Amino acid sequence: MPKRTRTANNGEATRRRVLTVAERLFAQRGLDAVSIRDITEAAKANTAAIHYHFGSKRKLVIAILERRAGELAERRGVLLDKIETDSRPELRDVIEAMVLPSAEMVADKKAGGRHYIGFLAGVTSHPEYMPLVNQIYDPTVTRYLAALERVTPHLPPDVRAVRFALAKVFLNQVLGQPGAPVHHWLEQQAPGADVDLTDRVVDFLVGAFREPHTR
Length: 215
What we know:
This protein is mostly helical. It has 10 helices and no strands.
């Protein structure tokens, strides 16, 4: 193999390794608690590699955000397509379309999906990155809100939007962060209660959207 090809392959392997390690560390500790040095040490790379491939920590965060966004959006799109062609979708159908793509990504341990969902929990609470998150995910969000409008006609748009926003935060934290306080509490108070976590999350959110609003 020509030297230039080997160098390019090694560079791409380093880039992927840095992305994977950074995603995991950000998911476990949060964006602000992880330094470039933490990432380079865990990825067995040097600081120059970070700057060469990404330029800055912010651009590294953006690269992680974009790496799996298409995969997640594609799965969500498949489920939303079914709902949009259904003449009478059920609330549970829409909630499952919200929950299942994230749950499936978390369950794919080989691909490290849990870390991406946990990473999303951190990045979506960081004001600096919210415009980018909105840009990437807004088309899907618009479709979810339209689907929810069909199955929750009893809710005003502002109430529906608030519940959807809360549901997104809840999903990322509960599914993507096994170290989140809710899991520690369940271990002490109801061991094994989160074994069928996906179904229970769906039940919880169906109840949240079905409930009428108060003024």
